[in-house]
UniProtKB/TrEMBL annotation, chains A, B:
It is found in: Cytoplasm. Keywords: Cytoplasm, DNA replication, DNA-binding, DNA-directed DNA polymerase, Nucleotidyltransferase, Transferase. Confers DNA tethering and processivity to DNA polymerases and other proteins. Acts as a clamp, forming a ring around DNA (a reaction catalyzed by the clamp-loading complex) which diffuses in an ATP-independent manner freely and bidirectionally along dsDNA. Initially characterized for its ability to contact the catalytic subunit of DNA polymerase III (Pol III), a complex, multichain enzyme responsible for most of the replicative synthesis in bacteria; Pol III exhibits 3'-5' exonuclease proofreading activity. It comes from Oribacterium sinus F0268. This is Beta sliding clamp. The gene is dnaN. One of its GO terms (molecular function) is DNA-directed DNA polymerase activity. CDD domains: beta_clamp (cd00140). Residues 249-366 form the DNA polymerase III beta sliding clamp C-terminal domain.
Length: 374, 374
């Protein structure tokens, strides 16, 4: 095999497919990137346990062939080669797997791996293909993913729930203490479909779909896999098995108290309070809503903080406690200057949502001893 | 005690004295900052095992007094208070050590520590006071400190050697494999004096002397301590005991081979070579000087790299091996576009130095098996 590349083309393709390369495994072929130039295009593939990325790299095929190369080493070499304009990076392999990477007067010789050991991506049987803007998908993932669980206790909580109903696309994440939902309207209607997508894949995906509102991603739903296609790249992931939680039953639009407040000011007050909860994440932040005003209070072994800010209050007064970090996570992922919070009683969750429910963040309250915090 | 501050004044003073606060100790008073407003000024002090920093903070003394406050907590609170223009931060303490920090509608109550437990800085008996620009001192420290040793095997190697001879000020660091020396001319002459300064202190000091060429530091030499004074701040450090190495005997200005080369190009080639030495820092980079050209070669379990670059050669051809990281460290701390390297034989060190010896970096070579690397 003999290929020539321009440095930046090869480097950016490696950075994309490198997201699906295992970093420490016992199966060392999973630490490799497959370079396949047998079918008229130079196709690079990374394939981890549960997801894989394939991307076409611009370049010239001087002699077809394929090889698997250790991803980290391959990337480091390309990154450090001289920055030149032309297709000056020459990658060539011999029968025995010896691989030479040359650029101007720098020559690397490393050992390649047998490309036949490499597991190729599953071919996805296409059921429904949905088109969405890269910007929307990226934002929706980033604005919900913090609400997934990390442990292995409940596998379904470690994924995000993708759901299409007509022309509505929503992403839901929950971890047992909170729910995050983002919804958007698609430009056309589709058959209803859904999938639980592992969060790890989405976290990597959100880094490589860097396009804007006009750039599209195709999401292809199938029984066992989800496939994302955009530009010269496809990402294929296994799905989390099982039926997702019945989230709609946990939501409610009734409320007894509604406050509208300045999001940034609220965030700054919560951030202050968190200083005193640093050694104990369970220390509740207590909110007191009364007379168009919100008081915040936290009491811990370290000390005590009191703060106060004006709000537009509708309905009853209320005293309620929350994990301050959960409040921050939700508020940091909203862009609006003013937000609405909906409460019922002190044992019921708060909902932070807009009119159209393009976002809806639910957070369960925390019990506290009202006497002790004076 | 009752004091009022402007947020930025207090925050920047805390960041300075905070450099001399222990982060995890059994003596928890060493994790504190002393606030002393008993003598007409607000003096903040941090004092670690072997060095301390004291700085005057602008502010109003409404009621004199002193208190010790946990440094990290104190900093975090001030950092997160509202950003206001006036002296709106109010710090007040009660007899029992209760401390209130208030800014607008945010109020923190934390426990202070007994200020009498706090060890004050030693008073330094002034022998010789040397004045140098903040910029020069900062650069000289940063450009040599990488050559100090980290272990406890040889305490003297963990410090930097400060030496004044007439109007010459030099800083020397060595770790058994290499020596780094930076020298500068002072604006006047002083009595000869010297000290071995712990590198940890210098590393923190270089972060807080942020001034330019016109801003001065006074270095006060005494038997047991060194004191740096600048603006409203003093830094006092214990010295490393003992006599420093006789470095002058290790230097030599004779050479058999001299090459002048482009520093950046050399650095890029070394950086490339280091990819293949990543699992084994001892893997030598082999330099071959011949016919006005420098070949670089490295061979490891991972693979092999060859590169070549033009040099201006004077004297004999040479084949010699080095730890690539040591070469990089020295070259990265030189600003000149072109540098001169002086060699004698393959078992003798290289010297990278300029004409005036404002810098002189010595690196010992590494043995290698010339056969094996073909």
């Amino acid at each position: 095999m003999k290929l020539s590349f321009q440095k930046n083309d090869l480097l950016s393709t490696l950075q994309v497919v490198g997201k699906a390369v295992a970093s420490k495994t016992t199966l060392s072929i999973m630490e490799c990137i497959l370079v396949d130039a047998t079918e008229g295009q130079i196709r690079l593939t990374g394939n981890k346990n549960d997801f894989g990325i394939e991307s076409i790299c611009p370049g010239d095929i001087l002699e077809p062939g394929k090889i698997a190369l250790e991803a980290r080493l391959f990337q480091e070499i390309i990154k450090r080669l001289p920055q030149t304009e032309g297709k000056n990076i020459l990658l060539s392999t011999e029968e025995n797997g010896n691989c030479t990477i040359q650029c101007e007067k720098s020559v690397f010789k490393i050992m390649g791996r047998n490309p036949d050991e490499f597991t190729s991506l599953p071919s996805v049987e296409k059921q429904e293909i949905v088109e969405i803007s890269q910007l929307s998908l990226r934002n929706m993932i980033n604005q919900t993913i913090f609400s997934t669980a990390s442990g292995e206790n409940n596998k379904k909580m470690t994924g995000e729930y993708f759901e299409i109903i007509d022309n509505q696309f929503s992403i839901t994440a929950l971890d047992g203490h909170r729910i995050a939902i983002r919804k958007t309207e698609l430009s056309e209607s589709y058959d209803n479909c859904s999938a639980i997508v592992p969060k790890e894949v989405l976290s990597e995906l959100s880094k490589i779909i860097s396009g804007g509102l006009e750039d599209k991603v195709e999401i292809c739903f199938s029984k066992q896999y989800l496939q994302f296609s955009f530009e010269d790249t496809i990402v294929v992931t296994q799905l989390v098995e099982g039926e997702y939680f019945h989230v709609r039953q946990m939501l409610s639009s009734d409320y007894e108290t509604k406050i509208r407040l300045n999001r940034k000011q609220f965030l700054e007050n919560i951030d202050r309070a968190r200083i005193l909860a640093r050694d104990n994440d369970k220390q509740p932040l207590i909110l007191k809503i009364e007379d168009q005003s919100l008081s915040l209070k936290i009491v811990s072994d370290i000390g005590r903080m009191d703060a106060e800010m004006p709000v537009q209050q509708e309905g009853k007064d209320l005293l309620i406690g929350f994990n301050p970090t959960y409040l921050m996570d939700a508020l940091q992922n909203i862009e609006e200057e003013e937000v609405d919070l909906y409460f019922t009683i002190s044992r019921s969750p708060v909902f932070i949502r807009d009119q159209e429910e393009s976002y809806n963040y639910m957070i369960l309250p925390v019990n506290f001893n009202a006497e002790a915090v004076g």
